[in-house]
Design a protein that fits this description.
This protein is of the alpha+beta class and 138 residues long. Helix content is 25%, strand content 32%. It is built from 3 helices and 8 strands, in the order ββααββββββα. A 6-stranded antiparallel sheet has the order 3-4-5-6-8-7. It has a two-stranded antiparallel sheet with strand order 1-2. It is globular and about 40 Å long. It starts with a strand and ends with a helix. The model has no long low-confidence stretch (mean pLDDT 90).
Length: 138
């Protein structure tokens, strides 16, 4: 999966010398320890769905939890009352659930969806995550 491990923080990346916020990893349990249980349940629904799709590495750091193949294709960041789920697609979505979209390059757009409960991880969100997984490098 990954081709380079940062000698300082021990995290693995898809590209050698990948630029990153050099932060040590932690467990998902530690990340959610002080957050509302509803957010942890929503996260677990996302993680279960991605595990069904294929091989995914889950990497928690202080600011969020990343889902990776060789590179990050989706990420969850907990706010006080919601999770902000972001995922990368090779197209730009226009949908009411998309809170924000950020064009990163000609073929990559980051999309952001607010998740407050398990029910928000619905068919649309699951389909977008499956697409993000499919178009991420192996």
């Amino acid at each position: 999966m990954a081709t380079w491990t940062c000698p300082d923080c021990g995290r693995r990346f898809g590209r050698k010398n990948q630029s990153h916020g050099c932060a040590p990893g932690q467990s998902v349990d530690d990340y959610f320890a002080t957050r509302p249980a509803t957010l942890r349940r929503a996260f677990d629904a996302i993680a279960r769905h991605l595990a069904r799709i294929g091989k995914v590495r889950v990497e928690a750091v202080t600011v969020g939890v990343m889902f990776k193949r060789s590179r990050t294709f989706a990420e969850v960041r907990a706010k006080r009352d919601r999770l902000v789920l972001s995922f990368l697609l090779s197209r730009t979505l226009e949908h009411p659930k998309i809170a924000k979209a950020l064009r990163l390059s000609a073929h990559r757009t980051a999309h952001f969806v607010d998740i407050t409960r398990v029910a928000d991880v619905d068919r649309d969100v699951r389909d977008w995550l499956a697409e993000a997984y499919a178009c991420s490098p192996v």
